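FAQ
Q: What does a multi-component entry look like?
A: The components come first, one per line:
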Amino acid sequence: MTTGPTTTALPLRPPAHQVSPRAVRWWQLRDLITVLVLLAPQVVLEIVFGTGWLVMTAIVTAVVGAAYVLAVPPLLFRIHRWEITDEAVYTLSGWLVREWRIAPISRVQTVDTEHGPLQQLMRLASVTVTTASAKGPVKIRGLDAADAAELARVLTETTQATPGDAT
Amino acid sequence: MTTAVVEIPWRRLDPRMLVVTPIGMIVRLLPAFAIVLITGGGNGDTGRLIGTGVAIVLIVGLGVIRWRTTRYRITPERVELHSGWLRRQRRSVPRDRIRTVDLTAKLEHRLFGLSVVKIGSASGSSSEHHGLSLDAVSKAEADLLRRELLEHSPSPVPVAATAAPAEVLARLDWSWLRFAPLTFSSLAGVGVIAAAVFNILNDFGVDPTEIGAVDDAAIRLSNGPIWAAVGVVAAVVLATAVLGALLLFTERWFGYRLTRERSGEGSTLRVHRGLFTRRSLSVAERRMRGAEIVEPLLLRAGRGAQCRALSAGLAKDAQGGVLQPPVPRAEAHRVASAALREPPSEITGAVLRHHPRAALTRRMTRALGPTAVLVVVAFVAGSLVPWLGWAGPTSLVLLPVAALIGWDRYRNLGHELTARYLVSRQGAVARRTVALQRSGVIGWTVRQSVFQRRVGLVTLEAVTGAGAGGYDVLDLAAADAVALADAAVPDLLTPFLLAPAATGRARVSGAGCRTGRG
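Then the predicted structure of the entire assembly, as tokens:
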């Protein structure tokens, strides 16, 4: 997938860093679980009632799911990027709807790291940067756990060094 | 916490709440009481009396517990509220985050000279509360709190009783009543009134069909031609709607006054209003982030509009932050201008830049696509079910309507950057013109869907701490969006720009422009 003709492309350079390569496995695992959750009831109902047409939906689910698991996570890995400068947090994410987010460090209120069970398995973490806005925080997902901790520490220090109540 | 904080004593709510809380509860439970007393609980008279007695004791008891367990205090840094008996709640709001103070006095509060104080604050982290509510304190205390809390510097000296004279920015003009039936919220209010009337009739065991006149009318209608019946019903509904809207407008906006009060170093905007329930909303002006002109379709057709303040700590509902009732459009822009101390051409009245033609295509697709699906469904249904044959042809009417809405949505799209504000407009069914302070922008989000990517459009969202938290500029040319964001908040985006676009506001083909900026 390309970014379209150059005349209409967004004149922003992508953020500098990619997320951890292990994020691909994490996303694949996550999506695989979703596909299995969708597949399981169809298989069970088919075995119990033997309707026949459920075999078809199950096959479609499995094929589409497999294609998604194989194709989308590597794509996400190529798209997802992040960068933190002394002035701003800058992220790029999204597959169907691409999203560039920029938040000035001076407006950052809290920095949190999260490790879900799957992320822990992969030694990954997400960093959530919250500002005063109600419109959702800036999230960097799929970072190496050690990198994430270091990033959160640096961000917290920078934030505390910046005066003002960030509203 | 410093040691000084410990010395500040806790205060209780006004003791008159011991009476007001039970009254409020009983009034709300009155229909239930009426049912029990009239129809009987099945245990005879003594059972009913005991039940009612127990209920009253419970209600009074709950009132006492509520009063005994609720404490609040105002320290130099925070407002703290502890409440609850079995489930304790501790709420605390940092004073430098307080943005609005809303005083509400329902009828039962007014009878006893009380007022509820709602404190709205900018949210800190997600774990912090967006404000708290003291229900209720005496009127004098409420007024003192209002002035003390919106005063930015926490001064130990009580605020001078002689407040500076308030400057009146707007007053109610009864000719504005004509806009009342044109607002959706009023129409919703009609539903509430109708439901209330029905409930009351129902609770007292009155069946409308048993009232002679109603029954008689129903019989005459059912004997007459169908168009007459439909016409009469429509007229009755319309008349109820108009009457209800007028009543609701009067209850909400009686005694409306928008004033500016100077207190200490800052000043506050204050909206007074209400017939039975008196409300006064105070917004710290220094922390206001802009204004919004809202024009729902009907109101816009009647050349009316309504101005709302953009600030943190306002209620999220339809009435949150309204600075005025529905008024003539010019008056809405005048109030926005008076509130923000800017000429209208610098804020909501600015002449806006049009968006690229590609945005028209996108609005049209989005309006016509779902409608076309509906039409197809209607035709299919019509061909399958014999008595639905009319559905397909009738649904064709939807297509021009959708096209008109799509066209109107495109026509309304626009944005402009003025000296201190980012102005943007969008919407057809509810047109909104937002003037957001450039210094209030705390980040940007650029979104591009697959479809937008093909035609080189993006949606730019200015992220802010006030109001909805973010305001979209829909379907801009990609280069224009980045140039706009870069110009609105200098230096933030600059390090991330691709080299060629870094020179000022790039213009991309198709980005039409109605005016040049000075």
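Q: Is there any commentary attached?
A: Sometimes. For this entry: The helical segments of chain A are 22-49, 53-79, 117-121, 145-161.
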